[in-house]
Amino acid sequence: MQALLSFDRAPPFAAPLRFFITAPLFALLAGVLLLVEGPGVLASRWTPAALAATHLITVGFMLHVMLGALVQILPVVAGANVARPLLVATVVHGGLVLGTLALVAGFLAAAPGFFLAAAAVLAGTALVFLASAGTALFGVPTTSPTIGGLKLAFIALAVVVGLGVTLVLALALGWSLPLVDLVDLHAGWGLGAWAGILLASLAYVVVPMFQLTPGYPARPSWWFPWALFAVLVLWSLAVAGAAPLLVRAAEALAALAGMAFAAFTLNLQRQRRRARADATYRLWQVGLASMLLALAMLLAVALHPEFAEWRGWTPLFGILVAVGGYMSLILGMLYKIVPFLSWLHLQNLGKGRVPAPNMSKILSESAAMRQTASHVVALAGLVAAAVAPAWFARPAGLALVVASGWLFANFGLAYWRFRRHAREMACLAQP
User: Domain 2-415 has what CATH class?
Assistant: First the structure.
């Protein structure tokens, strides 16, 4: 798979980096919200603070990193060259920041104006990204499981945005809709089809490349994205047909598919050729284990719906999926991607005359490991807060603020070092 990568097609470093540096600030805001509001954030999935915190993580952090990564990865992995990538990144990044803040303000203030603004900005931002990046992606042949999965993920993103805008407009305009079913379906498409298929498609490349594991087997790699996508289609049809038993069957199938992928990836990690356990390896262990626990919860509640009656089920499930699962896996990739991209662009700047500094000079492994430890502490605090919010909600919020601030500092410092080396190498590379 690595032989197919075309690093000479990489966009300017500023295109993806703006997303990576901004994303931790939204996770930090989620921690501040938990610190201020305390147990109320975890009292119910429907409280304004809970909805705001959820979208600070899923839209503010996760979507930021995912779209930024795609700006970088599409030309390198799929040969899909986005026209004017820096302009597209600037527009999408700005719209995502403003739209996320408007959405969070809408939840906290219960103000229809904020909801309408969020719907317009986020829908427009998604349209710009899908039109520019999607045109490039769907213009290349599907020659690998990664390209096929990315195309399905783009379709899923369009569905997620469509459902999200519908829900926001329903809140703003008082539409009469089956909100509970639609919210569950929105979450299923977002966390399952969009994030799940995207993660798997990128894992086919980055896990063997950065963690030195054997490659994923070809046939299951082709099947998994299609199987997960088909399950979400089945779930949608079940909701449209008001068939609760079919909804539960779709949930169970989605859980089983995700558990199979997580277990297989853990087994690949066990066979890695790198002896030392670095931050990426540890974060992927935490992320995959959290995913397995969350999906086991989903499978259990699909088989026995009464389990969901426990007050802590929804916050615990959400924390394990979003913070324990996706955030950990994303951090693991970023701790490889940011130093590698820095080195790559510095290497190009040196023009063969000045060697680029080692990646550890951009972002050291010790700095990554310390922030990883703070992330694990925050995750443990959040899990405890889901069980006993009165005792642990505010300490967990403080821990998330610390971990997210530390992440922002790590990436900010990495960018400062990159700029310093770039200035020095530009001078030295002059003939």
Answer: mainly alpha
